[in-house]
Amino acid sequence: MNRGKITDALKSGRILVADGAWGTALQSRGLKGGESPELWNTEHPELVLEVAASYIKAGSNIIETNTFGGNRYKLEHFGLGNRVLELNKAGVKISREAAGEENWVIASMGPTGRMTLMGDVSEEDFYDVYKEQAEALVQGGADAIVIETMSALDEAISAVKAVKENTDLEIICTFTFEPTLQGEFKTMMGVSPAEAAAAAVDAGADIVGANCGKGYNGMKQIIDEIRTVLPDVPIIIQANAGLPELINGESVFPATPQEMADQNSLWIEAGANIIGGCCGTTDKHISAIRNAVESAE
User: Fold this and answer.
1) How far, in Å, CA of 79 to CA of 253, rounded?
2) pTM, entire model
3) Per-residue confidence of the chain (297 residues) as pLDDT tens digits?
4) Around Cβ 119, how many Cβ atoms within 10 Å?
5) The CATH homologous superfamily of the domain defined by 6-296
């Protein structure tokens, strides 16, 4: 089957379902703190495949890859800076196997952990690092790239440009926002949803939105704000399953699958085109979201 472009599917009126959390899913399968999740793409590929396949089985049309920290700066922290190509390609191939021919693989690129504000990196450095990762993800067979959980506009824009100028893939760019005392939503670096989304589209992003944050509360407000400046650009929402609570020494995300699915009709009415989950969401959450999306169609 020819999947075509994600944006073409959205133009036809479809609401697509993305996947849920990867980090917490891998942790539940034995990933320890201080380990590189991306190293599992070569050392425990069967467990990474298990995560990807669980989301497809739950109803995801779109799944990400275990490459969120696959940029050189992040991998250098684990002594893996020379394995960018290998680990990213492996991550995409695993998700490609799970997705089959009917579903899309959007390869994940997360923040580097560095900031130009601190003087330890430049926008050119960002560009080069994301170019390297993007080219590896292309070789793995990705359909699109999602630049996600971004807070700094300069880093996000550098990443979008690196993908746009060095690949033919569709580009998704999402930021993480938190509420201010004034009731607004901003990134950690003080960027509003409207500012972030507009800048990402200007740089070349095809789809924009929000992920992570403090849960599903406020996502409708974020969608509304983005729609004021981008009435026609597709929006993706991937919220956390609430704020984590420490129970018996473990972080537990409290939002149930049905609680998250109950938000879907509000988000779709506001203008969301793709809905999935972030930290703490499981295949059960995605299954509930799939049922809610089908009910709304």
Assistant:
1) 31
2) 0.96
3) 578 999 999 999 999 999 999 999 999 999 998 999 999 999 999 999 999 999 999 999 999 999 999 999 999 999 999 999 999 999 999 999 999 999 999 999 999 999 998 888 999 999 999 999 999 999 999 999 999 999 999 999 999 999 999 999 999 999 999 999 999 999 999 999 999 999 999 999 999 999 999 889 999 999 999 999 999 999 999 999 988 777 777 777 889 999 999 999 999 999 999 999 999 999 999 999 999 999 887
4) 8
5) Homocysteine-binding-like domain (3.20.20.330)
